[in-house]
Specification:
Length: 178
């Protein structure tokens, strides 16, 4: 094929694309749903560690009554997509074998800095997904949240530091990861 033939073929394909896509529409986005939600950051860690090294494990424990189990699992599917989209490497949902009302959402993030960025990325639409899951929680308080860092982030000779504020347990929504 000559250069002239290639340009003619490209022009024909461009014209065909315009004709085929003329009536199609892009999905409409609600600007409110992509607005940033206020980030709820975890409390000050109780020891010094390298924030750029070592994975972070976030564990959120929910208490879900038996009659809400199906709704919880259904609501957790968009939550999984949200966590993975916002930066989690892995995500899993576990049920306690000794107490079937206890569920744990676990996800891994590359490092502490990435986890904080994950929290900062949360939109109002993300907050709604998290609120839908949290609304099914039947515990006395908010879901229990734990942040664990890999041994790779820790320095074993670094002394523990007493922080003025303990790590927050009220950020189930913000760990969306956030």
């Amino acid at each position: 094929m000559t250069v002239h033939g290639a340009l003619l073929a490209a022009g024909c394909l461009l014209l065909a694309s315009v004709i085929l896509l003329y009536n199609s529409r892009l999905p409409e986005m609600d600007a409110a749903s992509i607005s940033r939600a206020p980030a709820s950051m975890p409390g000050q860690p109780s020891f010094v560690f390298n924030t750029r090294r070592g994975m972070v494990l976030v564990s959120i424990e929910y208490r879900i009554p038996a009659e809400r189990t199906r709704d919880f699992v259904r609501a957790a599917q968009p939550l999984r997509r949200l966590r993975l989209r916002n930066g989690a490497e892995r995500w899993s949902l576990f049920r306690d074998v000794s107490n079937p009302e206890v569920w744990q959402e676990l996800f891994l993030v590359d490092n502490w800095i990435q986890h904080l960025r994950m929290l900062d990325r949360m939109t109002l639409a993300d907050k709604i997904v998290i609120d839908n899951v949290t609304a099914l929680h039947a515990g006395d308080g908010p879901p229990q949240i734990r942040h664990c860092v890999s041994y790779e982030a820790s320095s074993y000779d670094t002394p523990l530091v007493k922080s003025a504020t303990p790590p927050a347990n009220d950020e189930a929504g913000a760990t969306a990861g956030s």
